[in-house]
Amino acid sequence: MPIKKSGEPPAPVSGAAWHGMPAEEVLQHLKGDRRRGLSEAEARERLDQWGPNRLPPPRKRSTLWRLLSQFNNLLIYVLLSSAFVTLLLGDYVDTTVIVAVVVLNACLGSIQEGKAEKAIEAVRDLLSPSACVLREGHRKTIPAEQLVPGDLVLLQSGDKVPADLRLIEVRSLSIDEAVLTGESVPVEKIVAPVASDAPVGDRLCMAHSGTLVTYGQGIGVVTATGTATEIGRISTLLAQVGARATPLLVKIEQFARWLTAIILGAAAATFAFGWLTRGLDLKETFMAAVSLAVAAIPEGLPAIVTITLAVGVQRMAKRNAILRKLPAVETLGSVTVICSDKTGTLTRNEMTVHTVVTADDEIRVGGAGYRPQGGFSRNGIAALVTADLPHLLELARAGLLCNDATLHEENGGWRLDGDPTEGALVTLAYKAGLNPAFEQEALPRIDAIPFESQHRFMATLHRDLSGHGLIFLKGAPEVVLERCHRQRRQGQDEPIDPALWHRRTTEIAARGQRLLALAVKPLAKPAEALTFEDTEGGFTLLGVVGMLDPARPEAVEAVARCLSAGIRVKMITGDHAVTACAVGAELGIGDGTRALTGTEIEGLDAPALRRAVGEVDVFARASPEHKLRLVKALREAGHVVSMTGDGVNDAPALKAAHIGVAMGQRGTEVAKEAADMVLADDNFATIAAAVEEGRTVYDNLRKTLLFIMPTNGGEGGVIIAAILLRHGPSGHPLADPLG
């Protein structure tokens, strides 16, 4: 966009590498003021220049247009033509039947699609309605639509980010970016710039429109608004994905062409033979040819197809698969490749401690999610009693007390309030038999240093009932280890073995698990406050835990069923390659060692990508463009593709696939609107069940065609036989071609 006025900043460009520039340079480029923000006059000028911070409304089809679109089919054209001819011939009964079938088919299709096209302005609803900004040195809350590039936005826990921001100040800021990247845990934000070519998930100094602040505070300068944001870019990408015909519609179209050609050819040949060879009356022969065409056309086919598909839709709905378009039923039965998002679809989207490593041994933890059920095993021996694992109890107690998360049981399920990583530690404590209320009363917290991305640890000060003090420390292993000079083994403290811990943490990280170390420091004298000097050394390492968003057990079984049915399953995620490989191996997708990353996808041309998608089943760090390219590559390779997802980043690929499948519970409205099917239970296993149902529908349609085609062919054959056997005017008719 051209610059209106000398001295104004250049217009922000979608995709500009603001994340690769220092914060002060971004402020200078956008002429933002760190202390005062923009003036109201500057804000008005920029609003006039760049427009409001909103996305254009989606195009909506009218009810009439949706009804008329149901007639856009070659077979329907043939049926309407035959109805017109029968009307001219005075056969009003046949005319009425054919028109009724066509209209009923159109009404059923229109009603079904109308349910799917309710006015859901999905992408626009993701934008925050208001924003807290710094204008003329004062904080004020304004409608988010009035934000302009250069504005300073203040963020705090619970806020929805109102525009794309380059962060200039952060304090323990964590943002849930799952809607854009598929990351299963909130991302800790920093101020320092990152690589200019970093994918969206690695732009740690940016806050993107539509994401949610889960913890801490921050200040960011607006770098993009409206369609120039990441959300806006995806919205534009989604609009560019054209409508695609389902395999059923393609087959019906091909069948209609083939059938029309045969019927018209047979009618023309019959007319020519009767008139030229048999010398029959011209009008009589023409009427015979028309009767042949009308008899041969399977006028009941559209109604039968619609009814069969509608029955399939109802059966799938009972299995938690909600179809938005009738032809999608049969498409499911034709699927050869299912591309699935990882977080929340194949996994639970609930961080779980899988491994506990102490100086004594390595303990495997059973159970999945936040439900505190699951046992412990060591060296293949399961059902260990926690009383025999005092070192595990000490570590679990440290994780419980050095923690701000809580778990609540609601309606038979467990809900987390707080960070997913901390929730996993609370669940571990429950599994170890610890009672949070009792432990907090026995060792009440006196003070704490909250987690911040700058120091990458959290520390809490506690005092027992006897007045003795303790400091618990949890954080990144490399940060905690450098503060520990001892390790706990069999209840005794001994000098730490750095090589041991380096080896063990490397092994756990190779399994795709996120690592967290826990340590304790007894205090000789009771303290009233906790300072950073208290955390600089003198700790005893209790152990390291490895956490992972676990695969859904039913998804493992469903993947196996798909593979046995000849359907390949591919996982496309925004998560890191190591984590993706680990989850893929658990699910039976890929070999557990190889994943193609978004950066590698960008380096492949179309032919190379088609070869790669045939060889690789796990794709990591994928952006919306990468997912879209992968789906298109699979389609070009001749596959019938189903794509599943729940986030805005999945929407373009959902729309481009032969059948897009969105999650009904965790899925965004954007994903649901782009999809052909919505899973009411967010369960990948439901897709496998829906594919089975789709194959049943396909089989029923095939049997229907095999039944009605000989019937209509027989009707037409009688007329052809009558013409072939009839003599000229002087002869004796053997049959009346019109019956």
| Helical proportion, percent range | 40-55%
- Unreliable stretches (pLDDT < 50, length at least 5) are 1-15, 115-124, 728-739
Number of helices: 25
Counting copies of identical and different chains, the oligomeric state is single chain
Gyration radius, rounded: 33 Å
First-last Cα distance: 74 Å
Describe the main β-sheet briefly. Answer: 10 strands, mixed
Shape: elongated
| Class from helix and strand fractions | alpha+beta
Question: What share of residues are in beta strands?
Answer: 15-25%
Mean pLDDT: 82
Q: What is the number of strand segments?
A: 27
What does this entry look like structurally?
The chain has 739 residues and is α+β, with helices and mostly antiparallel strands. Helix content is 42%, strand content 20%. The strands form 4 sheets. Strands 10, 11, 12, 15, 16, 17, 18, 19, 20 and 21 form a 10-stranded mixed sheet that branches. Strands 8-27-26-25-9-22-24-23 form an 8-stranded mixed sheet, with helices on both faces. Helix 13 packs antiparallel against helix 14. It is elongated and about 120 Å long. The protein starts with 22 loop residues before the first helix and ends in a 14-residue tail after the last helix.
